[in-house]
Amino acid sequence: MQIIILGNGGALNDGLPYNAFIIDSRFLVETPPDIMQSLYREQVPLSGITHIYISHFHGDHFFGFPFLALRLFYDTMRGAVSPRIKIIGPEHIREKTAELCRLGVGEEHPLHGWMHETMDFIETAENKNIDIGNNIRITLFPMDHMIATWGFTAYQNGRALLSYFADTLWNDALLQQIRLHPKIIIADMNGEPSDPIQVHLSEEDIVTRALPFCGEETVFYGTHLKQQKQSAHLKIHYVVPGEVVEIA
């Protein structure tokens, strides 16, 4: 399994590309406002994308969707061959993407009909399993955030390799995924002790509440940051845009 980090910034950040990554150049996780810049910067071929995962409907995770859809539409009109794309997201994902695209390109654009013909929409639900190809399946679980937000654990050939903790506060339900001992956990680590309102995980949360239950190989990859960070802890690594992570 190969993961390309497309961005690592949260909604408020010091100029970082917004949080997104892609697995095996097929399974795109999040479509933030700058998703097109990030995909082109990392030379990810759009024609290979088969699945798009939206953890929740906040703008820094979702508002780039119309521009990605529009480019896929025009590439198809020019003769590019793309697979039928599955869009995975919270309840009403079909309606929310349609609404956002109407705002983005207008009511009469042919993009809307093309999306209806070429995209399948899958709503998230707790413990739902979704096959994303290459012998990989994901299992979904809820986050503790201000709106409905979902994370997943990705299994290949039955083994947990990667967990994604999207925007969330610490909650003990995360331990169920941590105890699976995935190789890496890509986690929202936007929280800081100085935050006036605590709405995200912090490094302290991971050190005190998560690491005691990790497997020997598990490493936390922090993302969704205010600014680029480094950790002195061997089990915590803050990702950078363009980083490539290989999981065997």
Question: How would you explain this protein's 3D organization?
Answer:
The chain is an alpha/beta fold. It has a single domain, classed as Ribonuclease Z/Hydroxyacylglutathione hydrolase-like (Metallo-beta-lactamase, Chain A), CATH 3.60.15. β2 and β3 form a beta hairpin. α3 packs across α4. The longest helix has 13 residues. The model has no long low-confidence stretch (mean pLDDT 96).
In whole angstroms, the N-to-C terminal distance is: 6 Å
Order of helices and strands: EEEHEHHEHHEEEEEHEHEEE
Q: Count the DSSP helices.
A: 7
Query: Could you report the average pLDDT, rounded to the nearest whole number?
Result: 96
Main sheet record:
7 strands, mixed
Low-confidence parts? none
CATH superfamily: Ribonuclease Z/Hydroxyacylglutathione hydrolase-like
Strands in their spatial order, largest beta sheet? 6-5-4-3-2-1-14
